[in-house]
Fold this protein.
Amino acid sequence: MIKKYKEFDWVLLGTSAAIFIIGLLFLFSATYSKNIDFIIRQVAWFLIGALFFIAIININYRKIISLGYIFYFLSLILLLIVFFFGSKRLGAQRWLELGYFNFQPSEFAKLFITLALIQYLTEQKSEKGIKNITTAFFIMLVPFVLILAQPDLGTALMLVPVFFTLLYIWGIRLKHLFFIIGGGLALSPLGWFLLKDYQKERLMVFMNPNIDPLGAGYTVIQSRIAIGSGGVFGKGWLSGTQNQLNFLTERHTDFIFSVVGEEWGFIGGIILIGLYYVLVRRAFEIARKTDDPCGVLAACGMATIIGIQVIVNISMTMGFMPVVGLPLLLVSYGGSSLLVTIIALGLLESIAIHR
């Protein structure tokens, strides 16, 4: 038994646990004056995730990835169910109500689509032509459109860097990769006409938050004030005025990094970013030590999902990127996001153990 877990990555686990504990501290700070239920639910989702984690590390990751197509079609079914039975909040219909909890299929789709792409690319390892690239593109495109229609622009866009990362690791010719990227950039202006009005407002506010300081630009402005007012060492835990006086909206979900910046300051923000860096670095280290192409693709895919989402979330709280509604992994409140992240970490540990 000890020999079986010899390659278990304790640094990956310890770093993830540290981030989650920090997340609970700031989730408590952001919500204790309103409702302690947020903490209870977050811990409940963590315990559910821990069960999945234990199960996954005891299964060879190749068996999980061999079910990629099944997970893919399950995600399509769930995304379609949302259109008919999903609950609507803040102009988006993304959630399914399951009694005490809310379930967000697009979060799971992000992971399931990645597994399906890994399975397909692994099966086509000897053929790397346009036909295979096109098929992989449509595997990604169908759920991308369904997620975008909810609308959930942030999660939909997350599929793009994952797709390109997997193609690159798979061994696509660089001229094909640059052609796809160039074509996508050339067509991107057309995407403006597919956006909802509030999404267009967010893009305009990104360029200049002061064009609507009390509307679409309010959250970003208050977030930047909170982070800036934290200074070097912060105002202290539970002592952030922007947070405690309710100037920050969505501070327990997408904008929780604003609470970190205000209460722990620049030093606290750097510590948290450093922990994320270690986490992503360990994921790529697992990929580097893995000889199996399937394992390499899976480890790089999980690392990309984690790394890109963290970069986008932190950047949007500071006004460096448009607001796209992505939570800060392991820190923001949200059961679906937490559970998917823990499953991704379990897959990484499975690769480390069974490579």
User: Anything to note?
Assistant: Strands lie at 87-89, 92-98, 101-103. The longest strand covers residues 92-98. The mean pLDDT is 88.
